[in-house]
Design a protein that fits this description.
Keywords: ATP-binding, Nucleotide-binding
Protein name: Protein kinase domain-containing protein
GO molecular function, one term: ATP binding
Distance between the termini: 27 Å
Structural class: mainly beta
CATH superfamily: Phosphorylase Kinase, domain 1
Number of helices: 1
Number of domains: 1
Strand order of the largest sheet: 1-5-6-4-3-2
Order of helices and strands: EEEEHEE
Largest sheet: 6 strands, mixed
Strand content: 25-35%
Bound molecules: adenosine-5'-triphosphate
InterPro entries: Kinase-like_dom_sf (IPR011009), Protein_kinase_ATP_BS (IPR017441)
CATH architecture: 2-Layer Sandwich
Organism: Gossypium davidsonii (Davidson's cotton)
Number of strands: 6
């Protein structure tokens, strides 16, 4: 059974974060500064997606965690629909990310008022 925020209610737990095999940054760290957000790609039901560049440490020909160009999805954490929990989409990407046709998530974490997935 799902809710309006795209999470399965059975999987929701207070304060729970989805770690999986991607890096989850602590809220205190300004990790988003590692990326330069460039332009908006689009908007979905739960958030907005931007294209950005890794500020350093990337490889122009790299893919995966060394890629220079990334997509960043921002979701407002305490919007009317999202009650401050990690987006259920994070769990889905943990399970499926990297499969053929499914983007791989490199980083995810809270950043101020937003949940951000790279
Ligand atoms: N990696 C990407 N490359 C290019 N465009 C993208 C990428 N990811 C998202 N977009 C664009 O951003 C839009 C919104 O993405 P989003 O993931 O929010 O879509 P959605 O699945 O429709 O929304 P939601 O998951 O919130 O219901 C997409 O429709 C697409 O146009």
């Amino acid at each position: 059974m799902g809710d309006d925020c795209g999470r399965l209610s059975a999987n929701r737990a207070v304060g729970q974060e989805e770690e999986g095999n991607t890096t989850l940054f602590p809220e205190r760290e300004n990790w988003i500064a590692r990326f330069m957000v460039e332009r908006k790609l689009g908007k979905g039901g739960f958030g907005q997606v931007f294209v950005g560049q890794r500020v350093n440490g990337g490889n122009e020909r790299g893919t995966g965690s060394t890629a220079m160009e990334v997509a960043l999805k921002f979701e407002l954490r305490n919007s009317k629909r999202c009650n401050d929990g990690p987006p259920y989409e994070w769990q889905v990407y943990n399970a499926l990310g990297g499969s053929h046709g499914v983007p791989k998530v490199h980083y995810k974490g809270k950043q101020g008022d937003y949940s951000v997935m790279v």
